[in-house]
Every structure is written in structure tokens, then in C-alpha cells.
Design goal:
By secondary structure, the chain is of the alpha/beta class. It has two domains: 205 residues, 3-Layer(aba) Sandwich (Rossmann fold); 89 residues, Tyrosyl-Transfer RNA Synthetase, CATH 1.10.240. It has 13 helices and five strands. The chain has a five-stranded parallel sheet with strand order 3-2-1-4-5, sandwiched between helices. Strand 1, helix 1 and strand 2 form a beta-alpha-beta unit. Helix 3 packs across helix 12, helix 7 crosses helix 8 and helix 9 runs antiparallel to helix 12. The longest helix is centred in the C-terminal third of the chain and has 30 residues. The chain is globular. The protein starts with 5 loop residues before the first strand and ends in a 7-residue tail after the last helix. Bound molecules: adenosine-5'-tetraphosphate (AQP). Adenosine-5'-tetraphosphate binds next to strand 1 and helix 1. The site of adenosine-5'-tetraphosphate (AQP) has 24 residues, from strand 1 and helix 1.
């Protein structure tokens, strides 16, 4: 690896990624590829914190790799790997668990939200999710983590754990910084614009998935919940639905929010929603074509997965050995 700083990020294969995952995270994975040494994980262990259908999880894992590549992540430039293929993630989690306090985990917004939406399965893994995420990041000497706004609290815990470990033992972990996009850090649900768009939302009209076809995308935008006013302007607090649509339009068309507001001045909500849908469908079409072509070549995708896991394993193992040594775990001479 070069002397560039390391960037790490991940997406869970917990369903089909939404345009929220794309705008908040994956699109930035591509933009930042030349500036950093990039490591992108498919966070399958995280998915186990909520109930998964095993066959769907396996399928979603392969499909997410194809999506990364279809979006423009280049396997020649960036490491892409599946989290469960590198055991050091679970191993470092154990050590960091011994330095994390319950109060730090049970106040996390994601934990509280998911405990409500999965009330029949509030497991220890759900609570421990941020510690596994801290391990993901800290194993790779990560300097920056591109994420959506919902993950900011988890990065703060990662930083606290890195600082805690470094001061208890000695300098070991790089303390990472989040990269949160100025616009699109929190794409909202189309059915309830006060809620984050999520791939596991039970209402399929609440999100646009990266695999939706043009007709479905336009239909979902036509049904998007807005407000009873008629004017189109950017005001996330009082006009959450319209502001969300303006943000999505701006990201997919490349037009600034200011120019988009001018473009739709005097136009009705109906026309505006169709235009947003068209911009998204146009942006997703080439990604979709490429993804489907990649999925026909399973051997190519498996090859990238294996190579990615080997590269990630080497870096992660080094950090884990250092951690084991510092905390006092004995390692025999070989
Ligand atoms: N609505 C969003 N707007 C902007 N960014 C978002 N991200 C997620 N939703 C939005 C960002 O996508 C990255 C990967 O997310 P994840 O799959 O690891 O988990 P998540 O944040 O819990 O995403 P979902 O879609 O809500 O998944 P489920 O429904 O399974 O919980 C992260 O950087 C995240 O910030």
C-alpha cells in the first residue's frame, strides 16, 4: 500500500441497498478512491443482529459486491471483502467489549430504534453492533470513514474506544474521522419524510431500492408523501418531503439545490415528483445494467472476494497481534 491515508467503510447486506445507502455512502466510496487507500467491507456479521433468512443473506452478500463494482468501485484500486471472511473482526470485538460500558451502548439511537422495530429479538449482538463496527474500522489503521449521518454516533464511540485503548496501553489505533456528505447524509423515507430511508422498512413504497426498475422508481416518487402547500423550496424542518426530493434530485441530476429550486419555481408537485423519479431512474440504469452483467460471472466475483479477504486479513492480523500483545495475551515462539 502507498503512503496515502486509509479509508474504511461498509454496507450491510441486510436487504437491497436503497438510494439512501448510495447517496450517503456508496457514491462517495467511488469519489474517494484515488485520494485514499480504500477498504470496503460487506458487513454480513452485522446483519445477524436482526433475524435473516440464510439463503437471502448469502445472495445479498454476492449481489452487494456486484453493486459496489457496478457503482464504480475498482477492484484494482480498492480492497473489497466480506466481513465474516476475516476473523479478526470478531476477535477484536471481544477485546473491545471488555473496555466498553453498557451505558455507552444502550443509549445509541440505532439500538433504541431497532429494539423497538425488532421487539421480539432484542439480542446482545444488537446492543454490541457499535463495538463490532469500531473493530471493523480500527483494524485497518483507518483515518477516514465515509458514512451517512445515522452512523455518526457509532464513529464517536469508535474514537472513544481508540483513545481509551491508546491511553490504557500505548499508541496502537489511529483515531478515525467521519466523512459525512454535506447534502444527502440522511435521505428520508418517501412514505414518512421525518424518518430515515431504510432498506429494511416494511413499506416498500418508503424506499427506492438500487434494483428497482424505471417504472417502479417513477411510481414510488409519484406516491411520495409531501405537504399540503404548493411551493417548492428547500426547508428540511418545515418541508421535509419536498426538501428530501430536492436533495435526491440534486444528487442524481448534478444540479445544485439552488438551481433545482429555480428550475421548479411555479411548477406543481406532480410534475416535480416525476422529474425526480426520471433523474433517479436515469442515474440507476447504467449501474443496474452493469450489476446484472457482473452477476452472470460468479467466478469473477468470487475471485475478487477471495483476493479482498486475503489483503484485508494481512492488515487486520497485524493490528490484532499488536492488540493481543499489548493486553498481555501470551504468544509462543514458533
Ligand atoms: N437514508 C440514508 N441516507 C444517507 N445515508 C444512509 N445510510 C443508510 N441509510 C441512509 C448509510 O449507508 C451506509 C450503510 O448502511 P448500513 O447498511 O450499514 O446500515 P444502516 O445505516 O442501518 O442502513 P439501512 O438502510 O437503514 O439498513 P437497515 O435497514 O438494515 O438497518 C452507512 O454509512 C449509512 O450511514
Amino acid at each position: 500500500m502507498s503512503d496515502k491515508k486509509t479509508l474504511f467503510s461498509a454496507v450491510q447486506p441486510s436487504g437491497i441497498p436503497t438510494i439512501g445507502n448510495y447517496v450517503g455512502a456508496i457514491s462517495n466510496f467511488v469519489k474517494l478512491q484515488d485520494e485514499y487507500n480504500c477498504i470496503y467491507s460487506i458487513a454480513d456479521l452485522h446483519c445477524l443482529t436482526v433475524r435473516q433468512d440464510p439463503a437471502s443473506l448469502r445472495k445479498a452478500t454476492q449481489e452487494l459486491l456486484a453493486l459496489y463494482i457496478a457503482c464504480g468501485v475498482d477492484p484494482e484500486k480498492s480492497i473489497m471483502f466480506v466481513q465474516s471472511h476475516v476473523p479478526a473482526h470478531a476477535e477484536l470485538t471481544w477485546v473491545l467489549n471488555t473496555m466498553t460500558y453498557p451505558g455507552e451502548l444502550n443509549r445509541m439511537t440505532q439500538y433504541k430504534d431497532k429494539s423497538r422495530s425488532h421487539a421480539d429479538n432484542v439480542n446482545i449482538g444488537l446492543m454490541d453492533y457499535p463495538v463490532l463496527m469500531a473493530s471493523d474500522i480500527l483494524l485497518y489503521n483507518t483515518a477516514v470513514v465515509p458514512i451517512g449521518a445515522d452512523q455518526k454516533q457509532h464513529i464517536e464511540l469508535t474514537r472513544d474506544l481508540a483513545i481509551r485503548f491508546n491511553s490504557r496501553y500505548s499508541d496502537t489505533f489511529v483515531v478515525p474521522e467521519p466523512i459525512i456528505p454535506k447534502y444527502g447524509a440522511r435521505i428520508m423515507s418517501l412514505a414518512d419524510p421525518t424518518k430515515k430511508m431504510s432498506k429494511s422498512d416494511e413499506n416498500v413504497n418508503a424506499f427506492v431500492s438500487m434494483y428497482d426498475d424505471t417504472d417502479t422508481i417513477i411510481r414510488k416518487f409519484k406516491r411520495a408523501v409531501t405537504d399540503s402547500d404548493t411551493k417548492i423550496y428547500f426547508d428540511p424542518e418545515n418541508k421535509a418531503g419536498i426538501s428530501n426530493l430536492l436533495t435526491i434530485y440534486s444528487v442524481f441530476s448534478g444540479v445544485s439545490i439552488e438551481d433545482a429550486v429555480k428550475e421548479f419555481d411555479g411548477k406543481g408537485y406532480g410534475d416535480f415528483k416525476i422529474k425526480v423519479g426520471e433523474a433517479v431512474a436515469e442515474g440507476l440504469k447504467p449501474i443496474s445494467d452493469k450489476r446484472l452483467a457482473l452477476l452472470k460471472d460468479k467466478a469473477y466475483l468470487d475471485g475478487i472476494m477471495v483476493k479482498g479477504a486475503e489483503s484485508a486479513f494481512r492488515i487486520a492480523r497485524k493490528t490484532l497481534s499488536k492488540v493481543y500483545r499489548k493486553v498481555g495475551l501470551y504468544s509462543p515462539e514458533r
